[in-house]
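User: Could you check the structure of this?
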Amino acid sequence: MKVLLLKDPKDSGPDPYIKELGLYGFEATLIPVLSFEFVSLESLFEKLSHPECYGGLVFTSPRALEAIKICLKENSKNEEWSQSLKHRWNTKPAYVVGKATASLVEEIGLTPQGEKSGNAEKLAEYICSREKPNSSVLLFPCGALKREVLPTVLREKGVPLESLTVYQTTQHTDLQESLSRYFSQQGIPASVVFFSPSGVRYSLQHIQKLSGDFINNIKLN
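Assistant: Sure, the predicted structure tokens are below.
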């Protein structure tokens, strides 16, 4: 039975979804749906250059860490980060929502906190348990489509947060071609799995067109 997974493959090693589904006899295929455009990188590094203005950092997406890594590819910025900024930020908390984001925080030399929270709401509760109302503002690099759960909870508790959009979500350039190739070579899948609202928005119309009258036979998850 064939399953179409609309997500990016893992950066390294076998994808856990393909591995797990294979154990149950499912033939799973990955098709990337989203691309990410990084923005405001100069503004991001300018803010990172002034840790004295902030009480800490908040990360709810690995993409926000990717934005910082892009900044650090520039030799002068990398040197400034390694010699000074990293150590000054390490005197402040770097709150993260999960293990994947935590590992990327460690890669840039910081110590993550809150990685066991698992979602934005629980991370917000964790932050509020550690930050006093009207304390120093927390810097929150995020995506244009960020959920408002965390900012709302922190605002209600009086914990200052400064959001900066550092990436935007767009449709993957190869999406239509990849879907067309899949349906022509593999046929109609038994199930299609979406991993985000953006994934539904960018791909569902193409899937309906390619499936035709068989769309009702596909289980959409």
